[in-house]
Design brief:
The chain is of the alpha+beta class. The protein has four helices and six strands; from the N terminus they run H-E-E-E-H-H-E-E-E-H. Strand 5 and strand 6 form a beta hairpin.
């Protein structure tokens, strides 16, 4: 895993109609097409908002969807 991936710590996420944006503690923002994330693409706005950071910001968990994403993996 590259050094940039190891330092990828999330502090916030937001959505628009087509993407999920993850803001990292170092100021970077990752935009991920929802087409790549079927559970989130099909989720309601309420379900998308019900998330929490896990692993000290290295992961994101959606309780309603039983979905987990690795933040470093989003940089691949």
């Amino acid at each position: 895993m590259g050094q940039d991936q190891q330092k990828a710590i999330a502090k916030n996420i937001r959505f628009d109609k087509e993407r999920m944006y993850v803001t990292l503690t170092d100021g970077r923002e990752i935009g991920v097409p929802l087409e790549w994330l079927p559970k989130l693409r099909n989720a309601t706005a309420k379900q998308k908002k019900n998330w929490r950071l896990i692993g000290g910001g290295k992961g994101i968990h959606w309780m309603d969807l039983d979905e987990d994403l690795s933040v470093p993996a989003l940089l691949k």
